[in-house]
């Protein structure tokens, strides 16, 4: 388990490109035959990736979280960004096509990832977003299109997108996770504009379906002193509560957004018009 310690805005004023990437960009989550996780001390979120091969993969526990099993004191949202797969929770099998989301509550002892497709679509690739949990909620599978869908943006401003809310206060119940998937329409590249912060939550973006020859320029930092990260396919960005999060790609793409912190109100954000940003 890689650890990333919490940061303040003052710490990135003079940061180099590599220092910014080391603090906020999470790479190499999706390695065939492995489960890889990164622990950020911002709201004690754990990001992970699991890519099963011929054999299933079990979610291990880690000394850093001081638990008998991974979900003893945690909950997790799982989104499949690869081919068809299954997630088995304490013996119950859940089938996840690409884009499906599985919420697994506190107290589930065993989580096992496996492939379920023909192989033509590639292996399953499960993205994990976990946060501490104070109680247990039921495990719930949501298939693509079954969540609360919001159509946002405009083609004129190159940010037409479909936002699918899965885990949220009016959807799948959780202790503190809010999670969903946004897909940009063809010809659109901006994912969030105007940019905003959540002073009460940490948010992470996992970019996927980014073409191999494309990149996303992700804006971060304070609104009056922005920085940027150049992000490739299946790489994640940690956004502390004080940091804006917005991005533009060289082609259309999708991303998993997930938050944890003080509340679960999706619209609890502080927006910053682009004319006020620097």
TrEMBL record:
Residue numbers binding Zn(2+): 196, 198, 203, 245
- What cofactor does its activity depend on? Zn(2+)
The lineage's top-level taxon is Bacteria
List the catalytic activities from the record.
5-dehydro-4-deoxy-D-glucuronate = 3-deoxy-D-glycero-2,5-hexodiulosonate
GO BP of this protein: D-galacturonate catabolic process; D-glucuronate catabolic process; pectin catabolic process
Keyword Secreted (UniProt): no
Give me the comment on cofactor binding. Binds 1 zinc ion per subunit.
Q: Is Acetylation included in the keywords of this UniProt record?
A: no
Q: What is its EC number?
A: 5.3.1.17
Q: Under the GO molecular function aspect, what terms does this record hold? A: 4-deoxy-L-threo-5-hexosulose-uronate ketol-isomerase activity; zinc ion binding
Q: Name one Pfam family in it.
A: KduI
Q: What does this protein do?
A: Catalyzes the isomerization of 5-dehydro-4-deoxy-D-glucuronate to 3-deoxy-D-glycero-2,5-hexodiulosonate.
Membership in a protein family? Belongs to the KduI family.
Q: What is this protein called?
A: 4-deoxy-L-threo-5-hexosulose-uronate ketol-isomerase
Originating organism: Cellulosimicrobium protaetiae
């Amino acid at each position: 388990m890689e650890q990333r310690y919490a940061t303040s805005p003052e710490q990135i004023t003079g940061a180099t490109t590599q220092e910014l990437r080391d603090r906020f960009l999470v790479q190499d989550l999706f390695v065939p035959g492995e489960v890889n996780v990164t622990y950020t001390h911002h709201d004690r979120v754990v990001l992970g990736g699991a890519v099963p091969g011929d054999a299933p993969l079990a979610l291990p526990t880690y000394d850093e979280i001081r638990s008998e099993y991974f979900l003893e004191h945690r909950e997790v949202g799982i989104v499949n960004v690869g081919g068809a797969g299954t997630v088995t929770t304490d013996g119950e099998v859940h089938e996840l096509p690409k884009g499906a989301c599985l919420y697994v509550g506190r107290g589930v002892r065993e989580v096992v990832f496996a492939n379920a497709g023909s192989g033509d679509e590639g292996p399953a690739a499960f993205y994990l977003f976990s946060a501490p949990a104070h109680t247990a909620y039921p495990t719930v599978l949501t298939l693509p299109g079954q969540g609360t869908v919001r159509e946002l943006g405009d083609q004129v401003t190159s940010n037409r997108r479909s936002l699918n809310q899965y885990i949220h206060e009016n959807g799948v119940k959780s202790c503190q996770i809010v999670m969903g998937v946004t897909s940009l329409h063809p010809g659109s590249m901006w994912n969030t504009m105007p940019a905003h912060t959540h002073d009460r939550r940490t948010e992470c973006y996992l970019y996927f379906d980014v073409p191999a020859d494309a990149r996303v320029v992700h804006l971060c930092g304070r609104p009056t002193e922005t920085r940027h990260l150049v992000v490739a396919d299946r790489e994640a960005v940690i956004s502390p509560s004080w940091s804006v999060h917005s991005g533009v790609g060289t082609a259309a793409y999708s991303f998993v957004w997930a938050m944890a912190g003080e509340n679960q109100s999706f619209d609890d954000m502080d927006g910053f018009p682009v004319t006020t940003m620097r």
